[in-house]
Design brief:
There is one protein chain. By secondary structure, the protein is α/β, with parallel strands linked by helices. The protein has a single domain, classed as Nucleotidyltransferase, domain 5, CATH 3.30.420. The chain contains five helices and six strands, in the order E-H-E-E-E-H-E-H-E-H-H. The chain has a six-stranded mixed β-sheet, sandwiched between helices. The radius of gyration is 15 Å and the shape is globular. Helix 4 (112-122) packs across helix 5 (127-155).
Length: 156
Amino acid sequence: MILDRAGFLAALPEGGRLAGLDVGTKTIGVATCDAGWSFATALTTIARTKFTADLAALAALLDRERIAGVVVGLPLSMDGRDSPRTQSVRAFARQVAGPLARPLLLWDERWSTAAVERAMVAADLSRAKRAERVDKLAAAHILQGAIDALAGAVLG
């Protein structure tokens, strides 16, 4: 089920490990966080093929990692409106929400890829290494933003 922030928090009253997803047309970047929602870590990148295969790979990974909830990066336009890409990610989230059987939260990710790219350029990573890592690092950036805000809502 896709929830708003309050619904997501209510569905996970005792926390639990979360996964962050950066859903692209060719890959899905995946990050996870600890059960206390302190820090996000880039985990892996799933190469997209067919929806059923993508769903099976994602479900297996979430089960293996004992994930309680999922945060999906929502690529809004800079003015905050939906774009065709936003609509595609919303459709993906609707399709996976039921089968994954976990609370799902859509999270604004407007700056995630750009922030990660800047950090990797500053670290002097080659283009090949940046391309290999960008999706899972963007997922970690998305998840970290979400857990910082969620943990603040719980504490505040």
